[in-house]
Amino acid sequence: MNQPKPDEPVIEGRKLIIVSLLSGLVWLLLANLIIYYIQETKLAELFFAGYHFLIQLGIGLISGVIFGFAGLGLIRLKTFKRILNEYAIIRQVKQMDLSVKEIVYVSLVAGISEEILFRGAIQPVIGIWWTSLLFIGIHGYIRLKTIPHILYSLFTLALSTMLGALFMYIGLISAMASHFIYDVVVLYGIKKNLSHPDN
Q: Which residues form a coiled coil (predicted)?
């Protein structure tokens, strides 16, 4: 059950870093185009909106830790462990032997690039709810087959909506910090608790 599908290659840690960097650059390019041509503003202006940098950073880190440990608690429950391999992202992470440095790097790239794209560029155009649905849909988290699938979808929707609210009411840096620390907590938790043959 923990084995990858035959047609699904496992990405090694270093390759994952390259893939995350390239995808991050694509997200940033796309975000810049949306911000410049649709919002008719500049990317740099997003970083000067909201509360002071340190307040944004603090609120983001605290909210990311809270959601991170909530997510870890959820995926460690037996009910949810049974469905985790159906999610490509979790399945891949369980197969990789990521170092702490690789986890931090991948989380940092995702936190910055995805929040700039989804919250900074897309959310002002289509709104918080559509952006949240798009975000979890692209990550493959919308599954409605069973009650655990629905609950996990709702959890990821709540996480995405929280990131959108942080962007709206606190600032972009807050959303990026929250996304970053959430990913660190969850990826490290998967590495430590779910990456063994008996899990």
A: none
Expressed as residue numbers, the domain containing 96 is 13-42+53-193
Q: If DSSP codes are grouped into helix, strand and coil, which group holds residue 196?
A: coil
Q: Structure tokens of 190?
A: 């998967």
Any residues with CB less than 8 A from the CB of 110 and at least 6 apart, and which? Answer: 20, 24, 179, 180, 183
Query: With contact defined as beta carbons under 8 Å apart, do 46 and 131 qualify?
Result: no
User: How many CB atoms are closer than 10 A to CB 157?
Assistant: 18
Q: Please give the structure tokens belonging to residue 177.
A: 């910090």
Residue 198 lies in a domain: no
How many structural domains is the chain composed of?
1
CA 132 from centre of chain:
11
CA distance 69 to 57: 18
* pLDDT digit string, tens, across residues 65-103: 999 999 999 888 888 888 887 887 787 777 777 888 889
Distance (Å, rounded) from C-alpha 139 to C-alpha 10? 17
Q: How far apart are CA 139 and CA 127, in angstroms?
A: 18
This prediction has a pTM of: 0.88
CB 183 within 8 Å of CB 107: yes
